[in-house]
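ugh ok so i messed up the first submission bc i forgot one of the chains. this is the corrected input, ALL of the components this time, i swear. 590 residues overall. if the numbers dont match what u have on ur side tell me asap before i send this to the collaborators (the ones from the other lab, u know who)
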Amino acid sequence: MIRAEALVKRYGNKVAVDAIDFTVQPGQVTGFLGPNGAGKSTTMRMIVGLDRPTAGRVEVNGRLYREHQAPLREVGVLLDAKAANGGRSAYKHLLSIAATHGIGVSRVREVIGLAGLDSVAGRRVGGFSLGMGQRLGIATALLGDPATIILDEPVNGLDPEGVRWVRTLMRKLAAEGRTVLLSSHLMSEMAQTADRLIVIGRGRILADDTIGNVISSATRSVTRVRTPESERLVAAITGPDIIATMLADGAIEIIGLTAEQVAIAAAASGLVLYEVASVSGSLEDAYIALTAGEVEYRSSDTANTGAHE
Amino acid sequence: MNVLENRRTTGIPAHDRLRFAGVLRSEFIKLTSLRSTVGLLLAIIACGLAISVVLGVTAEGAGLPDEPSVAFMLDQVTVGTVLFGQLIAGVLGVLVISGEYSSGTIQSTLIAVPARVTILAAKAIVLFVTATAAALVAMFGSWAVTYPMFAAFGIEIGVTAPGVLSALVGGSVYVGLAGVLGLGIGTVLRSVAASVATVISIILLLPIVLSVLPASPLVRNLHLLSMSKAGDAMSGPPDAGGVFLDLADGYVSSGAGWMVAATWAGIFVVMGAIQLRRKDA
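and heres the new structure output, hopefully the right one now
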């Protein structure tokens, strides 16, 4: 469990994190979303004490991170894939971290196997690809068998097999009752992995809810209908707050009525429907709607791309 | 929390926790698992031995004393290790911490060991012990390889002769302290290039600059209390007549040298510790 109370981080007069409160619960995967520069990494760094909060506090499993007797057993962190010296072998890197907590060689070998690094463990980290670096970072995070796992962009640079591995691993760790906090700019990946979302923009929390609620509150769901007699249907359903739009493929998109309401109206008018479906917004739509106006770095030609780290 | 523990699939023993002995082991693994740092430790030994051999071989041409002289022998045997060792150890000290900042390892280090003073203390101890050990090998090795050379001229000095042991050990400790000085500077500045330049300035340049400046009492005293002067005192011949430190006379005993060198190293490590605690990683 991670709990932040009125957490503030200021660099000079620039506010990176602006008095945020949130709780990350065990037993589920919590996604941490936000545009570049929104304060995600700063918040993660404050959780493990790399950066000192300007005000407020953030606790992990009931205490400040640095007050734990065995920090690595409490929290496993991946912040930077290349947080290892390029001249050192992956095995020695993990061994040096394990030594601080008296964690044995067998556990080091175990996480190397878990991360699929057996064949390259003796090689120097400098020669690793980004994906291998991520695997090493995840192995490092798992070293202490921690109750809380924090991963910043873990799937960055991973191959499809690796992406699926991370997703399965996160789900499994959460199912074991651990706290999992995960940041990513890949919305489809987040939609498949996370149970809850915390969306942050310019240092403030924009949304903190289940993934379903975040999507439904930030996007409008529409009802999509196909019928041979489009004009009669539109006439049958007219009303205030109801907007019907004819699409290029001959379907109609209706805002303001559920699929059931459209079907009942059609039946009352004796109309045949080929298709009626409720189409909800995607996480990407929700994210872009939430963070519009909070984006710190926007590319000049395509506004609101959001995912380009 | 108990339920949580039981549900974990992969187990590590519950008694594993952060201990200072573990942090020391971690730092030792880090120091010995990089070519650069191992190379520098070996370079202390190689330079020390090589200079001594060259001096030993050329000693006849450079002028030999008529009878066995502890001062002469120590000059020949310690100069390579002290002169080169202080710079190599200083650079090694810089790399131990600045190398972590440039490679990003510092993040992994501070996540595993959030107590910053603890990590700096562990680094200082491991560095001091390994650099001093390398210098001891160089010093006693130098004495051993030059012994037969001097014996050929009948001016050999045994290691048990008065003042020899303390000078060889003192010079080695000085090299270890130069390493700790580098560690402190590296912690304050974080950049490898800036730190190495500063180490060289303090150890090599400062005495030269001070010796060129007009010899006001302040400049003279500063010169006597410089890091490298302390190195000379620590690796020099036995003290004459119980004087500890006589600035007016320009005399620094080996005991005073120990104190001066430890103070230099200590000041920078304390500055580093303050920086490390106050600043974000």
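quick check: The first helix of chain B runs from residue 2 to 7. that seems consistent at least. Chain B has eleven helices and two strands.
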